[in-house]
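FORM 12-B: Structure-to-Sequence Request
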């Protein structure tokens, strides 16, 4: 008997749907990406967050690459947005295999990843590790929102009102604090002597960044 090698209807339909999805996504690509300023760019910030959750195991933090797993994504002029999108959606078989994220992530999330990887491809290790925030951390309204949430959630037991006089170290005059460190600590919490619960599951990332804005504002002020 001769094996029927004609494409199965389901496979043909799936291929057509993926191509259609990619065409729509290309038309909807955000006006961010390669030339955007990383600070206060919501799409890049969201793409970076998603990348760090899904991709760093193979690609390394900020796309530095990991030998035997995946190549570096920094300074890669060969990476075009269409190729990045296709690889994220369809994945890759063989060496450096990669899962197809198009069946898991919605189009908007894929475009955020495309924007961030595209941004990585035009930057070196020095700038690619920059903190990407969804808004300017010196925005007065964001700082005020962070202060309100801080004094409601964080001041009573550990940190003290306005970050001073609590069980934990004061936040004023703290040049050692960086935006990313503060965000990661709030999101993931801490273990050990200065134990702190993780707030990543309880607060939206935008709310966490407002807390970061307030804490970094405190850190720049002189100690009382």
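FORM 12-B RESPONSE
SEQUENCE OUT:
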């Amino acid at each position: 008997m001769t094996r029927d090698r004609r494409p199965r209807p389901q496979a043909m339909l799936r291929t057509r749907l993926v191509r259609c999805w990619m065409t729509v996504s290309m038309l909807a690509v955000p006006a961010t990406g390669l030339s955007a300023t990383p600070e206060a760019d919501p799409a890049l910030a969201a793409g970076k967050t998603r990348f760090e959750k899904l991709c760093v195991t193979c690609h390394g933090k900020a796309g530095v690459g990991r030998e035997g797993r995946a190549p570096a994504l920094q300074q890669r002029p060969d990476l075009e947005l269409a190729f990045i999108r296709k690889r994220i959606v369809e994945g890759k078989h063989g060496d450096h295999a990669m899962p197809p994220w198009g069946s898991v992530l919605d189009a908007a999330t894929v475009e955020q990843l495309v924007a961030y990887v595209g941004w990585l491809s035009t930057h070196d290790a020095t700038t690619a590790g920059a903190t990407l925030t969804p808004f300017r951390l010196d925005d007065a309204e964001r700082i005020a929102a962070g202060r309100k949430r801080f004094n409601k959630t964080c001041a009573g037991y550990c940190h003290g009102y306005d970050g001073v006089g609590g069980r934990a170290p004061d936040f004023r005059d703290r040049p050692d604090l960086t935006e990313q460190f503060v965000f990661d600590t709030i999101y993931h919490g801490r273990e050990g002597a200065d134990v702190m619960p993780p707030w990543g599951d309880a607060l939206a990332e935008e709310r966490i960044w407002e807390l970061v804005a307030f804490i970094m504002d405190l850190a720049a002020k002189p100690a009382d």
